[in-house]
Amino acid sequence: MDINQRLGAELSVAPKQVEAAVKLIDGGNTIPFIARYRKEQTGNLDDQLLRQLAERLHYLRGLEERKGEVLASIEKAGALTGELRRAVEGANTLTELEDLYRPYRPKRRTRASMAKERGLVPLADTLRSGKRPDGRPGGPALEEARAYCTGEEGLITPEEALQGAMDILAEEISDDPAIRRRLRQFFTASAALCCEGKDGCAESFYKNYLSYREPVRSVAGHRVLAIDRGEKEGFLKVSLDFDRDRALAIAQSKYPGARHPYGEFLRRAGEDAFDRLILPSAFRELRATLTETACQGAIRVFGANLKQLLMQPPVRDKVVLGLDPAYRTGCKIAVVDATGKVLETAVVYPTPPQKKVAEAARTLLKLIRRYGVEVISIGNGTASKESEIFVADLIRENGLDVSYAVVSEAGASVYSASPLAAKEFPQFDVSLRSAVSIARRLQDPLAELVKIDPKAIGVGQYQHDMPKKELRQALEGVVEDCVNTVGVDLNTASPSLLAQVSGISAAVAQNIVARREELGPFAERRELLAVPKLGPKAYKQAAGFLRIPGGKNPLDRTAVHPESYPAAKKLLALCGCKPADLAGGGLAGLGEKLAPFSEEALEAATGAGSYTLKDIAQELQKPGRDPRDELPQPVLRQDLMDIKDLKPGMKLTGTVRNIVDFGAFVDIGVHQDGLVHISRLSKRFVKHPLDVVKVGDVVTVWVLEVDTGRGRISLTMLEP
After folding, report:
1. 403 and 354 share a domain?
2. Can you give the three-state secondary structure of 600-620, one letter per residue?
3. How far is C-alpha 226 from the chain's CA centre?
4. Of 261, 276, 259, which is closest to residue 127 (Cα–Cα)?
């Protein structure tokens, strides 16, 4: 199998693109670097497709390696035939490969192996073929079996001998790759997944699965994961419903019994193979496949949600007061300036049991007026509703020109208690660090959230049930792509943010910060080459993603890679410009000046490819452009509603906070997020909510139904 050809066919990518991408990946280049700075080689493959390619490349190379191991093992056993070799080499999946290897794989001692030890293989051959070892037709089964009963110790009866022979045949049926493949297809196409509730199920989260049945082919991923968790927690018993007669017919098809002298024994061997050997493993395999598919889907959703959360527009140039709500221990306050520097902290008690509302109001008013606070960022955890009411009343009663936003505090406590937070704010206790984080994630969600384990951020479903390695790889890839898409200010970025830059490890990130603290800000990108452990290779991967606003070289503030500086200067010269002209904020009219030149002429004049030239031109027009600034700004509020204020038909504006398989949760200015079911996202058919909305989207919704008792709000995006 040619791996590159297969990758091209699977991903609909041209052979030259695949070859180039594989070569670059094998050369140690990161996905962000390849996607951004090697477009000519790859034909402009984007980061998502490149990651898919890298994942499939790893899988297919692992498959080829496993084929080598299987062939070596079978050959060592003296069982490798030309036909078997071709079948192994042609296997397209690990499952198919392991099916082929099953008959030859070393096994623990089984009923079949014990029968073989007793010398019953010839009897099994007789039952299978209808003939004795000498070629003569066999006689009555018991008579044939009697020949294998001896007077020695370990005497077996004819019945036991027959059973042993059928055990051998049953294992042969179970090990047959074609039988397994056909049964796998049968179960997938026609079986149903069933659940029964166990003790306590009716009062649990899993009550909807008390009496559940759904075809395997159509069961949704989030239901698979719910069933898995319900079974693990002891609330559900899971089974498989299928047409047993049809399944048995497949298992018994290896040795047809019709008009066969030993047909009854072959039929019984097939039934035993199915019930004892095939069905338990097939059910486990089916459940594992369903779970794996569901996890892959959940990880994709989680990754998409995380990307949108990280890429939410920052609230720039504003003094922000972060408020971490609580009851008994009080609400923690942190005021940070427009750069994220902590100005002052405090603790107030506007919530029960203390409920010192007046005192808390005085403290907040003092802080707001002293530092010119423009926005209050409220965490959405415990006591969030009461804190929001307090803030809204404070703004209204005092006529303040201040807005507030409720932000997700998922992961804030994880960060606050981390060694990183302790190093960053050694003077603050854990709770005050959380308030700082809540303030900063409104100012710059990306810079703050990279400090937190992506799994703890909480935008998805069943993330704690996901395979840890796959989830970590996927989410780290999302963070890496986001950071490198936005770019990083070399002179202000934290070690956590720097460590997400292409080519920069955590140790190198610390070295960059240490060098910055010792010698002052970096004046040029090339000064990075003096940082310990940051060699030419890492520099090449990282340089284009690091920005130096106000540095010596105006090109250092752009996403133009240093290797393309000569091309950028030539492009500027063609238009009668120079790099120093970028100091004023970019060359907005550059596009018009380049219009008279053909693509071929520009390539010849600069020595750069068309993709690179387009990127350079875009950067020169808007140096250091942040793609997040082009997205809708966060919804800032000055007052709030109570769930009791909501009426069916009410039109509201909200922000999408989370997306799951069955819909989207929208913040509408009430403590509880409302659910827009997938069926109410659009008039057209929606395969997945991500096809319509993304985390951070500002959407118009209408109230459908309000359940104040359960705190549930049903919304629709379809205008009544």
Report:
1. yes
2. HHHHHHHCCCHHHHHHHHHHH
3. 18
4. 261
Q: Of the candidates 604, 339, 623, 625, which has an alpha carbon nearest to the alpha carbon of residue 486? A: 625
Q: How does pLDDT run across 252-277, given as a tens digit for each residue?
A: 998 876 688 899 999 999 999 999 99
Mean pLDDT of the region 50-68? 95
Provide the domain limits for residue 97.
3-104
Q: Exposed, middle or buried by CB within 10 Å (0-12, 13-18, 19+), for 194?
A: middle
Bond into 353 cis (ω within 30): yes
Say if strands 320-324 and 375-379 run parallel, antiparallel, or are unpaired: parallel
Judged against a pLDDT cut of 60, whether residue 250 lies above it is answered with yes
Residues 555 and 654 in one domain: no
Residues 479, 496: contact at Cβ < 8 Å? no
What is the distance between the alpha carbons of residues 690 and 659, in angstroms, rounded to a whole number?
A: 7
Considering its fold, how many domains does the chain have in total? Answer: 4
| Secondary structure string (H, E, C) spanning 537-590 | HHHHHHHHHEECCCCCCHHHHCCCCHHHHHHHHHHHHHCCCCHHHHHHCCCCCH
CA distance 234 to 199: 8
Q: Does 710 fall in a domain?
A: yes
The pLDDT assigned to 459 comes to 64
Q: What CATH number does residue 674 fall under? A: 2.40.50.140
Q: Answer for the pair 665, 658: CB distance below 8 angstroms, yes or no.
A: yes
429-435 average pLDDT score: 88
Q: How far is 546 from 54, CA to CA, in rounded Å?
A: 25
Q: 218: pLDDT confidence band, cut at 50, 70 and 90?
A: very high
Question: What spatial distance separates the first Cα and last Cα of the chain, rounded to whole Å?
Answer: 56
Contact yes or no for 696/627 (Cβ under 8 A): no
User: For residue 559, which phi and psi values (nearest 5 degrees)?
Assistant: -90, 5
Alpha-carbon distance of 158 to 452, in angstroms, equals 69
> Residue 44 is part of a domain; what is its CATH number?
1.10.10.650
Nearest to 375 by CA among 423, 431, 320: 320
Are 349 and 360 spatial neighbours (Cβ–Cβ below 8 Å)?
yes
Residue 238 lies in a domain: no
| pLDDT single digits (tens) 597-640 | 999 999 999 999 999 999 999 989 888 788 888 776 776 766 66
Residues 408 and 441 in one domain: yes
Which has the closest alpha carbon to 484: 499, 501, 496? 501
Give the residue among 535, 536, 500, 498 at the shortest CA–CA distance from 514.
Answer: 498
| Predicted confidence band of residue 458 (pLDDT cuts 50, 70, 90) | low
The answer to whether 192 touches 241, Cβ cutoff 8 Å, is yes
Q: What is the mean pLDDT of residues 490-513?
A: 94
DSSP bridge partners of 683 = none
Instruction: Provide DSSP, 30-88.
Output: -HHHHHHH-HHHHTS--HHHHHHHHHHHHHHHHHHHHHHHHHHHHHHTT---HHHHHHH
b/e map of 256-269 (b: 16 or more CB within 10 Å)? ebeebbbbebbbbb
| C-alpha to C-alpha distances, 394 to 639, 640, 645, nearest whole angstrom | 10, 12, 20
Considering the chain, what percentage of its residues have pLDDT values greater than 70? 97
Question: C-alpha dihedral over 118, 123, 127, 133, to 10 degrees?
Answer: 150
Query: How would residue 512 be classed by pLDDT, with cut points 50, 70 and 90?
Result: very high
DSSP state of 274: I
Q: What is the dihedral of CA 531, 533, 536, 541, to 10 degrees?
A: -90
